[in-house]
């Protein structure tokens, strides 16, 4: 796959294609020409006696310090070297690639004043599969993701450390030489242009939205299995009932549940008939079953809002100062990550609640007083066997962690740069904790699927009827890796199989092969 930069804004899917799947990037010739034109404006100011931020001055609290002409190239190199100050565990390859891609996209808007060769070198580094080493900590999400972006710029200068396409750690100069890439010697404003953006947090938002798109559909699927196996009803999911409260997300999730449960002999076995047969004594199901569309749908609507913010950012040119269309070089505050920090935190809240409801459905399977006749803990021989008792403990531990991760980062401003940067956004921190939250959600939903599949096997055997085609397909896909009900087995590997099949979309694909799930 090849992605062309400069013609139009990138899409979320394109960001993921480059960051996660190594799609090739090329730069549109018109974008390179536009970059050359705005670079001429910057160079025209290089010898100006009037101060211009990032061209002839220091940075941050040092913005009033005049830099002599002969030291302005050194100024850019020093900026990158000093700001490449991250610490902690190595950031994931896909995050670094997404960060570099999005900084490159801003360069191709021709609003930064960087030379075309800088953009071309970034594209070459991405296409060669070289990944600068970036540490977990170093961005306050204001003045951009400074430290992460500085590490990327440092590598393009031929300094610092990178991983090559095979993952081998090596000096950047060696990796660039092996790939036939000439290091960039930065000139006026270019160091600043390479570090002053919200690219890290935006890249992580794009990746998170892609993962959540799969996970919320899988959560709908898991809820369907649970409703069926716990002898719940599909009647609250009727389209006319959902239309009374016109949130689009809940209508989508309810439609998913109707499709997942369509054709279920288990649901039909206790559905009241016109003649009063199969009359169910329960008036209504518990909230974790009946209200699944409301919670899952609210997550979908939160994702839609976050995607709207992401798409606005993808259509933006974020730098400080910027070169305007009429040739001015103006300072601004577009680098502040508040719009991204807020939605990243909002998604972490939604993830925690989605996982919490999933765990509650799992717990119903294990309590004989609420499972509608299933054995305690779904155990083969209760007392001798513990069944899925501790799988729910694992879920509960993860959900507890997700609630802690839902505490917003974006309200925790810590002033920096001698109080010049006296309010910061913490969007990078919000993005980092959302990544951990998504991993936790994947595990929680996987355990629900594992437990619901076991419960559904037991229920179908007890009733002597078949489950819905969609749920049967999911159970069959899971049974290729995990055995059905029986005496206690080593449970951790079975959980990990379920996690993998949830994460890679195998179980969702099995259902989608039978019915349409959004």
Automatic annotation (TrEMBL):
Main localization (coarse): cytoplasm
Signal peptide: none
High-level lineage: Bacteria, Bacillati, Actinomycetota, Actinomycetes, Micrococcales
InterPro entries in UniProt: Aromatic_Lyase, Fumarase/histidase_N, HutH, L-Aspartase-like, Phe/His_NH3-lyase_AS
PANTHER family in alphabetical order: HISTIDINE AMMONIA-LYASE (PTHR10362)
Family to which the UniProt record says this protein belongs: Belongs to the PAL/histidase family.
Keyword Lyase (UniProt): yes
Record-listed E.C. numbers: 4.3.1.3
Protein known as: Histidine ammonia-lyase
Recorded GO MF terms: histidine ammonia-lyase activity
Gene3D superfamilies: Fumarase/aspartase (Central domain), Fumarase/aspartase (N-terminal domain)
Single biological process term from Gene Ontology: L-histidine catabolic process
Top class in the EC scheme: lyase
Organism encoding this protein: Microcella pacifica
Catalysed transformations (reactions): L-histidine = trans-urocanate + NH4(+)
Pathway(s) of this molecule: Amino-acid degradation; L-histidine degradation into L-glutamate; N-formimidoyl-L-glutamate from L-histidine: step 1/3
Matching PROSITE patterns: PAL_HISTIDASE
A Gene Ontology term for the protein's cellular component: cytoplasm
Alphabetically ordered keywords of this record: Histidine metabolism, Lyase
Cellular localisation: Cytoplasm
């Amino acid at each position: 796959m090849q992605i062309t930069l400069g013609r139009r804004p990138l899409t979320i899917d394109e960001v993921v294609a480059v960051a996660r799947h190594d799609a090739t990037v090329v730069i549109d010739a018109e974008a390179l020409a536009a970059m050359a034109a705005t670079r001429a404006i910057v160079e025209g100011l290089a010898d100006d006696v009037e101060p211009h931020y990032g061209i002839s001055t220091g940075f941050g609290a040092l913005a009033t310090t005049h830099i002599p002409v002969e030291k302005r190239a050194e100024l850019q190199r020093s900026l990158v070297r000093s700001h490449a100050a991250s610490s902690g565990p190595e950031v994931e390859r896909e995050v670094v690639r997404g960060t570099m891609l999005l900084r490159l996209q801003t360069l191709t808007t021709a609003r930064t004043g960087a030379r075309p060769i800088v953009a071309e070198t970034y594209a070459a580094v991405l296409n060669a599969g070289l990944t600068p080493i970036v540490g977990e900590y170093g961005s306050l999400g204001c003045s951009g993701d400074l430290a992460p972006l500085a590490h990327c710029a440092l590598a393009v200068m031929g300094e610092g450390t990178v991983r090559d396409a095979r993952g081998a750690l090596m000096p950047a100069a060696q990796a660039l030489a092996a790939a036939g890439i000439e290091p960039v010697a930065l000139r006026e404003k270019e160091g600043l242009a390479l570090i002053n953006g919200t690219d890290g947090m935006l890249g992580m938002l794009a990746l998170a939205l892609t993962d959540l798109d799969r996970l919320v559909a899988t959560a709908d699927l898991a809820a369907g299995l649970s409703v069926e196996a716990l002898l719940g009803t599909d009647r609250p999911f009727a389209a006319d009932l959902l239309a009374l409260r016109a949130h689009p997300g809940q209508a989508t999730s309810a439609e998913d549940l109707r499709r997942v449960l369509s054709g279920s002999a288990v649901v039909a076995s206790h559905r009241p008939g016109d003649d009063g047969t199969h009359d169910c004594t329960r008036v209504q199901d518990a909230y974790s079953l009946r209200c699944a569309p409301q919670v899952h749908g609210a997550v979908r609507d939160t994702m839609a809002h976050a995607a709207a913010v992401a798409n606005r950012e993808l259509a933006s040119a974020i730098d400080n100062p910027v070169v305007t269309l009429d040739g001015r070089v103006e300072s601004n505050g577009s680098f502040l990550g508040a719009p991204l920090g807020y939605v990243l935190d909002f998604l972490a809240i939604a993830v925690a609640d989605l996982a919490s409801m999933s765990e509650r459905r799992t717990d119903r399977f294990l309590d004989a007083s609420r499972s509608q006749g299933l054995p305690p803990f779904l155990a083969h021989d209760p007392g001798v066997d513990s069944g899925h008792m501790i799988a729910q403990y694992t879920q509960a531990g993860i959900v507890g962690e997700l609630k802690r991760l839902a505490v917003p980062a974006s309200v925790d401003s810590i002033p920096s740069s001698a109080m010049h940067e006296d309010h910061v956004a913490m969007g990078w921190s919000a993005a980092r904790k959302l990544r951990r939250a998504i991993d936790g959600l994947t595990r929680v939903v996987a355990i629900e699927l594992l437990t619901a599949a076991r419960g559904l096997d037991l229920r179908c055997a007890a009733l002597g009827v078949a489950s819905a085609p969609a749920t049967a397909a999911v159970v069959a896909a899971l049974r290729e890796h995990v055995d059905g009900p029986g005496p206690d087995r080593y449970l951790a590997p079975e959980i990990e199989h379920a996690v993998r099949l949830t994460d890679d979309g195998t179980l969702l694909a099995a259902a989608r092969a039978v019915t349409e799930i959004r």
